[in-house]
Amino acid sequence: MAEKLIPITLKVNGKEYKVEVKPNETLLFVLRNKLNIKSVKGTCYRGECGVCTVLLNGKPVKSCLVLAAEADGAEITTLEGLAPFGTLAPIQKAFIEHGAFQCGFCTPGFILTAHWLLTNKPDATEEEIKEVLSGLICRCTGYKQIIEAIKAAAKYYKQDKQKQ
Ligand code: FES
Ligand code: FES
User: Contact, 6 vs 20, CB < 8 A?
Assistant: First the structure.
């Protein structure tokens, strides 16, 4: 018997997608393989590495742990949605300026998590930055440059908050 498909709607980076998913398909699988959003990647597929991190209704989640059907109606932001095409968000520029990546495999998860932290708490301390990053693994850069980049980007988020 054919497996039942569930129709869902996802708003990804401001664009609405209607897609049919299997009950056991993860948000990671659907974003990457059905919507072709390639910044979202998987390594461990069990919540340990964080490379699959996306913002779900504004909060970072590990998309390998979320069933796509559970995300029906949600707003998702991936790295592609942080800044208009052809431009970079301040946190992305800071990662470049501070050499905060090497292979780049983990970078979308770090940048989205840092963006969420600085949007909500632009004056986050180094300890708070480290705590938020604790669920993310980078195997090649080292965390020092990543933390420096996040601290450097904080001033842009503070300015944005003051304008609000
Ligand atoms: S692939 Fe999701 S946490 Fe590793
Ligand atoms: S930049 Fe290579 S794993 Fe983080």
Answer: yes
Of 41, 101, 113, 145, the residue with max ligand 2 atoms within 8 A of its CB, to mutate for a pocket test, comes to: 101
Ligand nearest to the CA of 145: 2
Residue nearest to atom 4 of ligand 2 (CA): 138
Domains of the chain, CATH where assigned? 6-79 (3.10.20.30), 90-163 (1.10.150.120)
Distance 49 CA to ligand 1 centre (A): 5
Nearest to 160 by CA among 120, 106, 112: 120
pLDDT band at 69 (very low <50, low <70, confident <90, very high): very high
Q: Is 123 in the pocket of ligand 1 (CB under 6 A)?
A: no
When pLDDT is averaged across residues 139-154 and rounded to a whole number, the result is 95
Contact between 154 and 118 under an 8 Å Cβ cutoff? The reply is yes
Question: pLDDT tens for residues 4-16?
Answer: 999 999 999 999 9
